[in-house]
Amino acid sequence: MAARIITVANLKGGVGKSNIAVNLACELGGGERRVALVDADPQGTSSHWMSRGRYPAQIHSFPLEDERGAQSWITKVLSIDSDFLLIDCPAHSRAVTEIALSLSRLAVIPLTASGPDLIATTNVLNLIETSRAMRDGNELSFLLVPSKIDHRTGAGRRIGDVLRHLGDVVGPEVRQRTAFVDAFTERKWIGEFAPKSDARHDIVNLANAVLAKMEEIEGFGPDEQTAQVS
Ligand SMILES: Nc1ncnc2c1ncn2[C@@H]1O[C@H](COP(=O)(O)OP(=O)(O)OP(=O)(O)O)[C@@H](O)[C@H]1O
Ligand SMILES: [Mg+2]
Predict the structure, then answer these.
(1) Is the CB of 176 under 6 A from ligand 1?
(2) Beta carbons of 86 and 104 less than 8 angstroms apart
(3) To bridge 111 with a disulfide, which of 86, 121, 201, 213 should be the other Cys (CB 3.0-4.6 Å)?
(4) What are the structural domains of the chain?
(5) Does residue 71 come out as left (phi exceeding 0), alpha (psi in the -120 to 50 range) or beta?
């Protein structure tokens, strides 16, 4: 069976795409599931992150600059043998984001609690609409994930209320947490670096929300839920 493809994207830089892509891929990869992460960003953040030791997900460094080379990139991505495949997209490239979305069932869109990010997020939602219009069959769903949320700021406290009316397209928050930064420094995913931390809890919650969304999309069993961290 073809992998379930999930693109992590936002046209805005620095919103936490790679942080979410790496930790979500590794969280989903625990247990029986075979999970791959394609680093499509020429910056190579997730490839650097997952460059030391072993991880529950397998990293593939397939940078894509623009639409040139798209066909061979798509062939390489689709030849990866896994149950779930995540794509970490570069910021600022509509073309690459569009190509990744064209392969995906779910788009995970991290957004921070700031005005410019909300504008960039509107642009990526427009891309999702375009992608939906161009495909036949295979729905593309999306999950907005409040990212790097700092509850000490007014915007951080308000983002939940601002997004609440959007309903179930909003996923659980991934808060601003130093453990994520330190985990990157150690080249460990959060479940290895700080398995019982609040940061890990954020990722477990997000992984469960993603699995629930995939279940909604294609109806697979509740036994595929990740375990809660005790
Ligand atoms: N939840 C978080 N808590 C604390 N720091 C975070 C969090 N998420 C990301 N960061 C930090 O913010 C910076 C940008 O994160 P990241 O590289 O994941 O964003 P990105 O959207 O992938 O960026 P780019 O657009 O450059 O690819 C990094 O220094 C990262 O360590
Ligand atoms: Mg990145």
Answers:
(1) yes
(2) no
(3) 121
(4) 4-218 (3.40.50.300)
(5) alpha
